Amino acid sequence: MPKIIIAVDGYSSCGKSTTAKGVASYLGYAYIDTGAMYRAVTLYFYTHHVSLTNPKEIVKALENIKIDFRRNPETGRNETYLNGLNVEDEIRKLYIANWVSEVSAVSEVRRAMVAQQQRMGKARGVVMDGRDIGTVVFPDAELKVFMTADPEIRAQRRQIELLAKGEMLDLAEILQNIRMRDYIDTTRADSPLKQAEGAIWVDTSFMTLDEQIELVTHLADEKISELIRENNFKS
């Protein structure tokens, strides 16, 4: 059975991560949350007061950052570790969301994270979600998906997520954060968010998470079957 790379790119709060996790579980692939990696860097920069206008300071900080993912046996989910500490819950807070797009736009940060991501996916058999997976990290990915949704619907979804974690935030504040992140992500000079060549556009505004996972797993099955047919034809 050939292994492929599945790149899931798109805007925040479109269901990318949940969809990517579901597809990875279905296929028995590794799931890599690149957004969590940038959030972990943001947390490190925030707690160590790293200036985004000082390239030397940024490079030095990146040398001290080690990010990995570990499966929690109790919950069954992958959790983000920063220098050996579980930061999964902390990196999901709004103060990180408010700054992560600015940190992600720094060229030194993107180069460091892209290099790590490419190493993680070298053996293929991975599902990776983020902003530039299909355009920069793995432009040769066999399946590319670009996800979007109406900003107000995304803000409502984000509010529900935060409420589940005990954070009460005004919908207008969340919507402002989403629009700010969209602007930064799509206009940054280094690896801006855009639909990759050959990527399948998916609007999740009125889709359930199960429908999103079902759609992408169907696309993956079709791609794998296509590769099997091609290999059989060549042999």
Characterization of this structure:
By secondary structure, this protein is an alpha/beta fold. 52% of the residues lie in helices and 16% in strands. The protein has nine helices and eight strands. The strands form two sheets. It has a five-stranded parallel beta sheet with strand order 2-6-1-7-8. A three-stranded antiparallel beta sheet has the order 3-4-5, covered by helices on one side. Strand 3 and strand 4 form a beta hairpin. Helix 7 (151-164) crosses helix 8. The longest helix is centred in the C-terminal third of the chain and has 26 residues, at 209-234. The chain is globular. The model has no long low-confidence stretch (mean pLDDT 93).
Summarize the structure.
The protein has 235 residues and is an alpha/beta fold.
Shape: globular
Order of helices and strands: EHEHHEEEHHEHEHHEH
Q: What is the first-to-last residue Cα distance? A: 15 Å
Oligomeric state of this protein: single chain
Instruction: Tell me what portion of residues adopts beta-strand conformation.
Output: 15-25%
The residue fraction in helices comes out at 40-55%
Low-confidence stretches: none
Describe the secondary-structure layout.
Layout: E1 5-10, H1 16-27, E2 30-33, H2 34-47, H3 55-63, E3 67-71, E4 78-82, E5 85-86, H4 94-104, H5 107-120, E6 126-130, H6 133-137, E7 143-148, H7 151-164, H8 171-187, E8 200-203, H9 209-234
Parallel strand pairs: 1-6, 1-7, 2-6, 7-8
Antiparallel strand pairs: 3-4, 4-5
